[in-house]
Amino acid sequence: MVKPYRMHSFAELGDKLSFGQELTVSAVQNTNAMLLSIGSNMSEKSIGAIEKILGTSLPDANRMVQGVVEIIWQGPYQFLLVGKQLKLDDISTVLNAELKDETILVTPFSSAVKFMHVIGKNATTLLALLTSIPLDTDKFSTETVAITRLAKVRCTLIRRAGGVDIIVDRINANHVWEWITDAANT
Amino acid sequence: MAGYRLEKGGLVGRNETVNFTFNGRPYVGFKGDTLASALVANGVSVFGRSFKYHRSRGLFSRGAADPNTLMQIGIGAQTSPNIPATQVPVTDGLVANSINAWPSVEFDIGEINDVFKRVLIAGFYYKSLMWPKWGLFEPIIRRAAGMGKVPKEPDSASYEIGNLQCDVLVIGAGLAGLHAAQAAAGAGADVIIMESDTVAGGTSLWSIGANANEDVREQVKRLVNEVHSSPNIRMLCSTTVVSYHDDNYLVAIDRNCDVVAVDERLIHARAGSVVVAQGAVERPFIFENNDRPGVIAADAFSELIRRYGVAFGKKIVIFTNGGRADDAIAAAHEAGIEIVAIVDSSDGAGSDARNDNRLMGHVIKRAMGRKRVRGVEVVPTDGQGSIKLACDTVVVAAGASAQLQLFTQSGGKLSYDEDSASFLPVSSMQNVRVCGASNGTNTPTSAVSDGRWAGLDAAASVGFGDKPSVPDLTRALEKPLWFVHQSSSKTSFVDMQGDVTVSDLALSLRENFRSIEHIKRYTTLGMGVEQGKISGLAAIGVISELSGKSPGDVGTLKHRPPYSPVSLGALSAGQKRGALLAPIKKLPAHKWHEKHGAVFEDHGWMRPTYYSMSGETMHGAAAREAVAVRKNVGLFDGTPLGKFEIKGPDAAKFLNYIYAGRMDTLKVGRIRYGLMLNENGSLFDDGVVVCLSKDHFLINASSGHADAVYDWLEAWHQLEWPLDLVIQDCTAEWAVATVAGPKAREVLAALNPGFDVSAESFPHMSYRAGHISGVPARVQRVSFSGEICYEINVSADYGEWIMHHVQEAGKLFGLVPYGIEALEILRAEKGYIHVDTDTDSNTQPKDIGFPYPSKTKESDFIGRRSLMRPASHSPNRQQLVGIATADPDTVLEVGAHIVTGNPAQSIGFITSSYMSPNLGCSIALALMNGGKAATGASVDVWSLGKTVSGTVCDPVFFDKERGLLNG
């Protein structure tokens, strides 16, 4: 029998690209995530219960917050939870138990999404080649989340201090990585 | 002056010479010259030949508006056809050639067409070349048509994409545009100016204009410097805005990229507000032989002298209709060019006395000369007599044509202004305004006022500063001379680029074409590269006079993007080329497949079509794999299946709407096959629904429709049935290893998934959750092959591992990997359809053997009403059947028609066809009219040029009793 091993989708391309000192793009390995969807009719009380379990209020549209895990807005009533696997498992168990009569779904998403960090002074210069959203810090400030198209596929961009994170569907991750590599090489 | 280059003057770099070639001959220019100005300086008159009549043509206008100077620029991989020489900066080593002339531009055999122009009128091909058949003439016409040559080598230029956002975008950096930008920036807005010329300043850099003086040019130079140094203005020269779309989204091409090794940049710009300051160009006078080399627009004439230090001719006649010639007259005097005469079509009433010996009340009837003007014939506007004047140049000052193409692309409306004889902007649905010469102003003072108003208005509209009041503007009073009636209409050119004459427009009116859009299409007016920039208004005027309608009633042509030609390379800018053109989806176990000899094809994902062993062909490999599955067990990667989880108290109700069959009765742990229909009742997708737990379902959609199904679910939920449920797309989370065959159960047992895998405990169409080596797994017992089959779902990061692990576990049982081709054979043997292969947009459930709606389903579902239509019950509908060929070794071609009668009529077609290695004969599925009732009948199939006999049969060729499936 073959012992289980986990493959990252960037393994074949390498996990870090450096372009001088002003730009680094790295693929984040082994992130753990879950997708949380809640019904649009959920009561304030139930949402309060969710927030208590998560340790913070749910983020507004196009924002992210840090509770016991990171909570990233993905659309109306849908959030990506990112953190340690054990913590996510805990949250899933507690949510399913305490809100079993509510319309709520928490599913594993660690394989479904892949993360890249784009860091450095030239981060936004690079991203301006790939996406049409305004990247100035006054319009795209820290912890702002943008759901947009990058390299012709749907991606989530998050402004962090020092750079931008890209979250992309696993299926398209290699393609986005190749686009970024090609753009950065110019 | 030496040659045509003036000894002094102009803005070119006289200390920096540039060597280039034109039609194989070497020439010298200066840095700052365009190809057009450098050629004129070297005494070149004939730049090319016209499209239809191959008449000699020379420089007429400036910038993108010139119709006559299209060139082939560059050689080899870098060559580009149909570039106006007025827009090509001359550089060292530049190679330019004329187009549409053979063997040379000086002697072109095609000029014979000019002799036959009475026959080659507008639309001649609608009335001739029909006998004996058009097909004889078409290749000749195709060879003769078209201008320039495309490169045969791959493009070696590099292109980049850019995304810009700003508060105010100003299009045009002339006097008005610069003031608009400065005003907007002064109010606090972030401004971008895009100017298609290589330098900012517009015509004010070299034009004096009416009632202005030398100071205007100096003011403009200072203004340009101020704008360059403004911190919230970005100036992009050599950048042409080519299209204007919704929501103030514009596309521009930057041909002077600041990034090394990028030849062109395609810019996507998004602006809060837009100012259009594109300016205006001189339109032509329409008279006999107005297309000859030597006839030039007044603004182009002045630009040559003051900007490039080039005299266009040595003895000139100026033709004006009263107002706009002053600048050309002044420029001619500055350059020491002899003005033979000024022919003024106006009667001079009300104008200031002029001391320039004008011929008032006269018009040029015709220009004489072929490869260069050598004189003109002048006649009075009314009365008799004519005068012939010797000259080498005719400068025409007919009036301005405001450039409003981008404004109209924005949805802007135009209105004809009688006083200025031009179309002026009225309103737009978008946040855009027009200023300067585009808005009809004709003095520097008005341009400045208008520009400042536009900038402040644009800034205020996006929250910067106060809204300004509209200034009083001066516009020229024009007495248009649309065409010279005394001239022969057959050589009075309205659209020089398309060889469209006054005679052609008159013909179209006689043939009852009334709309200018119809006249355009009939005559090809404005359909060339110039796109009506100077011919548009001229044509409207001519049509107005010929038809008796006002120009306002004639209307304008619709301007569509691009404003000027865009290279295909720029459109592919960034990474939209080669392997990066479209996202390529790879399986999580891609490397595992490669290692096992997979031959991949793009099935939406890169999937193994087959696994090649020892140089097998595809058919050989697929047959081997299909036999192995039926004999022992096979392993298939089913990861691309769509996977959508739906949860909530209304989940079952929602699924009942979505599917034609009932899903509300599906028990926990069970799976049901479902058909999704569209509103027409036709098949949209087939798949399975798994009941994971109470109120929690998993949809498996076909891999080819996964994205469409997800959009479908969300659309119906959000827009029609906002029921209490949530939907998640989990397609990317799960990898699927499919184990199929009589020994599949043994393989699953060897994996030890943590639940009972016996037939009794885990029947066909059921679901279990467990762990395989500690990795959570969902196992579905469904089958597309007709064998015992388990789809093992694990987290996609373990996708490669699960294939490896199952393969190891399966070695004992003779497991082989199998690909798409083998799967297709297996499912066709079982008569299982592939939606969109064995169905088309008309196929309904009953056609493939599902009698929906079932009696037990009372609730509505998508498509239900359409299934009630009489046409849905017609016995002659195309129905799914099997076709067994009389010769078992003959494999029918997919798409081959089932025919009957004489002459043969099609009554159906083959949808899937294979040689079945398990049955030892060919099998085919087909859609056939009234197919069910025809079971047993003999049919003919027209396949690959031959008639093949066959018999209509049950589409299930293998295991009709389903004994294997339920084993």
What layout of secondary structure does this protein have?
The complex is a heterodimer of chains A (186) and B (967).
Chain A: E1 16-18, E2 24-28, E3 33-38, H1 44-54, E4 64-66, E5 70-75, E6 78-82, H2 85-98, E7 104-108, E8 113-119, H3 123-128, E9 145-150, E10 153-160, E11 163-169, H4 170-185
Chain B: E1 13-22, E2 25-31, H1 35-41, E3 48-49, E4 56-57, E5 70-73, E6 80-84, E7 94-98, H2 112-115, H3 124-127, H4 134-144, E8 159-171, H5 175-186, E9 191-194, H6 214-228, E10 233-236, E11 239-244, E12 249-254, E13 264-276, E14 280-282, E15 295-297, H7 298-308, E16 315-320, H8 326-335, E17 338-344, E18 358-360, E19 362-368, E20 375-380, E21 387-390, E22 393-397, E23 400-402, H9 405-409, E24 413-417, E25 422-427, E26 432-434, H10 444-461, E27 493-495, E28 500-501, H11 502-510, H12 516-523, H13 535-547, H14 551-554, H15 568-571, E29 585-586, H16 590-595, E30 598-602, E31 605-611, H17 618-631, E32 634-637, E33 642-647, H18 651-658, E34 671-677, E35 683-693, E36 696-701, H19 706-719, E37 726-729, E38 734-740, H20 744-751, E39 766-772, E40 775-781, E41 789-795, H21 799-810, E42 816-817, H22 820-829, H23 864-867, E43 878-885, E44 897-900, E45 905-916, E46 921-929, E47 938-943, E48 946-953
Parallel strand pairs in B: 1-7, 8-9, 8-13, 9-10, 13-26, 15-22, 16-17, 16-22, 17-18, 29-31, 32-42
Antiparallel strand pairs in B: 1-2, 3-4, 5-6, 5-7, 11-12, 12-13, 14-23, 19-20, 20-21, 24-25, 27-28, 30-31, 32-38, 33-36, 33-37, 34-35, 35-36, 38-41, 39-40, 40-41, 43-46, 43-48, 44-45, 44-47, 45-46, 47-48
